[in-house]
Amino acid sequence: MSSIGFVGPGIMGAPMITNLVAAGHQVLAYGRSEMSCTRILAAGAQVAGSPAEVADGADLVITMLPDTPDVEDVLGTGGLAAALMPGQIFVDMSTIRPDTTRDIHHSLAERGIMMLDAPVSGGEAAAHEGTLSIMVGGEASALDEAREVLECLGATITHVGPAGAGQLTKAANQLIVAANIQAVSEAIVLLESAGADLTSALAAINGGLAGSTVLTRKREAFINGSFEPGFRITLHNKDLRIVCSAADGAGIALPMTALVSQLMVAAVAQGLGHLDHSALLTLIRTCNSSH
Amino acid sequence: MSSIGFVGPGIMGAPMITNLVAAGHQVLAYGRSEMSCTRILAAGAQVAGSPAEVADGADLVITMLPDTPDVEDVLGTGGLAAALMPGQIFVDMSTIRPDTTRDIHHSLAERGIMMLDAPVSGGEAAAHEGTLSIMVGGEASALDEAREVLECLGATITHVGPAGAGQLTKAANQLIVAANIQAVSEAIVLLESAGADLTSALAAINGGLAGSTVLTRKREAFINGSFEPGFRITLHNKDLRIVCSAADGAGIALPMTALVSQLMVAAVAQGLGHLDHSALLTLIRTCNSSH
Amino acid sequence: MSSIGFVGPGIMGAPMITNLVAAGHQVLAYGRSEMSCTRILAAGAQVAGSPAEVADGADLVITMLPDTPDVEDVLGTGGLAAALMPGQIFVDMSTIRPDTTRDIHHSLAERGIMMLDAPVSGGEAAAHEGTLSIMVGGEASALDEAREVLECLGATITHVGPAGAGQLTKAANQLIVAANIQAVSEAIVLLESAGADLTSALAAINGGLAGSTVLTRKREAFINGSFEPGFRITLHNKDLRIVCSAADGAGIALPMTALVSQLMVAAVAQGLGHLDHSALLTLIRTCNSSH
Amino acid sequence: MSSIGFVGPGIMGAPMITNLVAAGHQVLAYGRSEMSCTRILAAGAQVAGSPAEVADGADLVITMLPDTPDVEDVLGTGGLAAALMPGQIFVDMSTIRPDTTRDIHHSLAERGIMMLDAPVSGGEAAAHEGTLSIMVGGEASALDEAREVLECLGATITHVGPAGAGQLTKAANQLIVAANIQAVSEAIVLLESAGADLTSALAAINGGLAGSTVLTRKREAFINGSFEPGFRITLHNKDLRIVCSAADGAGIALPMTALVSQLMVAAVAQGLGHLDHSALLTLIRTCNSSH
């Protein structure tokens, strides 16, 4: 049984806290909004007065926040970084920029604090079921210590490399998902142009080398045009900004990534941001029809 | 038991003939090269002296040829079209241009001959095992008659729409495969830039929404850089020419398809054409390294 | 003074005939429509009854037709190819596919007939003024003989290489124009996002290394959103099909060309085909705004 | 006659100081390196001990620095921002991020200090000749006061809009130049594939709607493959990072910009960074040839 500090009881974070408490861990959590308090208490955890406070007596501190600046705020202005003590492990499960992640790793390491970057995939459903896929970057020894806690949250916990590698793997994941959705969307527009039966054609396609989890899970959405999220285009757009900035930082040209990234920006600009990312189909259809 | 005419006893066609004979069908086949004769006899079929001859007494005539001009040649110069009789069914299992396919459908239909366009996926292995995935365009009634024969060749036979829809579905399939390979290749270059552990990162990625048959089947090739075909880049390039020409014909803009299609052309230009299509990874690596 | 056969008295062709007649040449011309007759007579030329007939007694035969199949029709079904005699020079001033051009060159050469491919730029205005820019592919000796006639039509006549090189140079020209229009359009969308003064910003840009004839001639159209043609998007789209097919035939990857080509297709699909090609600006604006 | 503070006596900055002194202005300048001192003295100006010091008694302070962080450093750590006094005008002639520029404008405005963002085009030669093209963002009244000084440096001084509009116009300029170079490069590869005569084909192209300053000034470089800078690929790459980040910040999708930006990254990755930006031609040639 561990003492766990937690910042970020949101749509993903709240069910994660519930799972930690259910596994017998003691959780002290902080959230900015009033609703956060309600969520924390409902999850069976205790409410902290500030980000810094959650570090108090914790074996492990977890953050689960929307974007890079949120993590920087909680650590800096929120005082969490200063409050962390040697021997404690800091696990950032947010999806943020790999370069920022590496900076945080290094500045904490100088003070004897080990960090893991541990972004997740699987979405809200997997957060509730405790079946997230967790991609972990950082020292293997830190993961050894944190593994028991992370196993309450995820079905697979994969050590993918040094500091930042978790974030980079998540970035790679998000670029593949976006490219896949776009590829299937273009295929659908092509199929429709010839009066092909979409349901049977996609079934045939999914049975061969073109098969994918995107096609399996999103086929109904594509066929019915039902794009309730799921995973919002605005969030995927944010993640692709991270991908592009990581590629930029590494001086790597990724032409397909750059293209799908522009298409995601256009989807947001066209007011599709609140829809599931499978609505890239709407964008390419609009692109090919008069208004 | 049917009488079957067959043109094209190549790498794919020869094992298909074997499977037809094994199922008890009588097969009369034609191939241009000397090796063709050997293959036809080895498969237990009889050798015809010309493409036209295979139609003689056939219930069903199958073609399995490399490219659009080959099918046109066999039907025109080879005399097969003229030799086909009302009541016979013509099944073209080659991967060719959908517009040409529709032209052939229509000109045969005027003479009372039903045609199916029935391109396949699954490759050489599936051709041997009789487990091809067959995408069929044309009249449902024609497929009803041909189905028993096609079931000797494929594990799934899907009617995907009217004349040309089979070819278009195959085209859609090939664009998704190419985009997927490119997306995974870009992800790998990104992962390598951060020293991520490729084996574990790709495993984690394949477990979530980014998972795909490409990632499952080609992961080893990507990791080890072993690009023996498999499916050659030159062939995939030919298929993407078909995709682009189909989109062109329909007046549809498919930006990601256009991009990956250019990358496939560049791969051929760089001398990678004889390698498996997963060698798009080599292209993007070359693109990002000094020579 | 020469005897000239002419096929294609259209928007470009009619004023070209007028200029030839004004220079003292004898012109026998053919056009398909009733309006063609009127135009030919108004230009001071004589009307032929068929494409073949214009070759009768001609020193030089000129075609100025909309697209590749039109040239093929006039030469084949129209009988012009068969009617041409050794010693006559055939000058195709249409913008068509370089590979078709080369085929025609070769089949005429076998019969002792020299051909020039001589597409033009400059548009309707330059056709009237006789100031077209003419890009000529073929034998230098053929150009020597044809030059005096071509000088009635164009201000600059440039020999750019062997058979097909004229068409390829025109193709290269059209890809640069399209890319330029798209680049300026993207620049404008960027400038508008920051409230920059478009008129002064474009003036400043045009004064430096980013300056271009597109920016000089189309600036007003861009600023005022007045997209009457000029050169129609449908025509530029046709020309970009030629560019892509030429690149395809040569096995060359041209990524930016492929992209702008898709954008031109999308512009047509969105119903902008009748507007001037500078209306690519409308496309990128639409792409970035909610409807 | 004005008192001018100047930070950044580099390849561009040094001849600018010379021109200011020649026009009778009193210049106090700071540079980090030892060579800076030599350059400042050679230009006839006085040497300051720190960035902050140049503000002392100045009517106008000019910075001409390589990149965004350099300007931030000089203003922050270097103490220049704190040293500026109400009534002084700050003119940043560096090419930096528009969002950073706007932040600096606003924070200086709060203290009564007016700022102009005034990036230039024209390169080293124009800096020496005092014929730079200067794109100015900020208050018109500030430009009124600074104009006489700027006229010693540039041939055209254009007020293009509010704070940041100067940087954005420069960004727009750089994206057009890059797209133009890439378009011409792709055209050249296409022309070479058909054995066209490059010199005459480019001359013909430059005479029509495809004409551009890039084609005029860089034609020799393209034809001879002589890519000594001029303007380095590394610098253009930096500028395209600014363009992409400005588009990102504004939520605008610019597909062609994104593509050419990836090509510039690839050029750097392939070790071409030290060459003139016209060496994008080398990239597309490499892309289309086996090694």
TrEMBL record, chains A, B, C, D:
Pfam families: NAD_binding_11, NAD_binding_2. GO terms for molecular function: 2-hydroxy-3-oxopropionate reductase activity; NAD binding; NADP binding. InterPro entries: 6-PGluconate_DH-like_C_sf, 6PGD_dom2, 6PGDH_NADP-bd, HIBADH-like_NADP-bd, HIBADH-related, NAD(P)-bd_dom_sf, Tartro_sem_red. GO terms for biological process: glyoxylate metabolic process. The active site is at K170. Residues 164-283 form the 3-hydroxyisobutyrate dehydrogenase-like NAD-binding domain. Keywords: NAD, Oxidoreductase. Residues 3-161 form the 6-phosphogluconate dehydrogenase NADP-binding domain. It comes from the Bacteria. NCBIfam families: tartro_sem_red (TIGR01505). Belongs to the HIBADH-related family. This is 2-hydroxy-3-oxopropionate reductase. It comes from Ruania alba.
